[in-house]
Amino acid sequence: MDPAATEAPTAMTDLPKSSGPQSRVSGASPVSHDASLGSARAPEGALRLKRLTVPSIRGMKKRGERIAMVTAYDATFAQMIDEGGADMLLVGDSLGMVVQGLDSTLPVTVDEMIYHCRAVSRGARRAMVVGDLPFMSWQLSTEQALKNAARFLSEGRAQAVKLEGGVEAADTVRKLVTLGIPVVGHVGLMPQSVHAMGGFRVQGKTEEAADSVLEDAIAIAQAGAFAIVLEGIPSDLAARITASIDIPTIGIGAGVECDGQVLVCYDLLGLTPSLRPKFVKRFAELYAEGKQAVATYCSEVKSGVFPSAEFAFGNVQPSQSSDASSRAVHTPVPDHVPAGYGPTH
What's the predicted TM-score (pTM) here? Predict the structure, then answer.
């Protein structure tokens, strides 16, 4: 029997579930973490959550439980998204566009991806962390694919890798999985092939093209991937693929019939003011809120309102002794000191 069918659900029951395109993917309850990664210890009494695994993700499809994936690129966002209930965090090469300001994902390097994976792994406690293999990081040889994918797990502390490609990538997927590296596939609109595709265009719009995308998805599933991203394809094609393979499908611009959905966190949170792909629903407008907060800060700094006494450390008190060694006077430590990286008293 497939262990995924019997593994107990690990989702948090007290957290709410979130119910031609331009590509944006290609991309907690705090607990103590590996000290070598430099993360802080958890607050005392923090709830420890079970990390989602390959069998538990596969089991979600069997149970009919939708999968929520969100991209993340640093520890703070990872913690926020993890605590929000996301099941998977994708460290996507989309960071090239939303973090680095590039016009495509192609220049992103393996070293950059591993750096961001390491940061995200520090913030995630429950969600599975998946690292995106960037452009030409696995296609040259099986040896290259194994070396780079292994780095994502050993150095980046990811639990799986994602790679774009269909039939032509199946042998690589099979080899990675055989050697113990979990793989998420990605078919349909593949951002790393943006030039070959003539831009960010919907794929599978004709019957022949749809059959080709289905063939790609089946090949990746049969090669051993445990999940697959379907990007920028018609909704009925995504439904057909979802019914044809036994691994979860995670859609972006692929309709509601997929087993799960993924969005870039900057899009989801409204942090991209000038870019609004058709498939993106903005669940907040944090760019506008952040811009207003900065404007208020600048105004208070220039007017001398900030910092007020509430945010300062008082005055030097006169010494009560002629002994120079006793002249330093410290402000009493408050009963409750907030967590932070600056002085507290």
Answer: 0.80
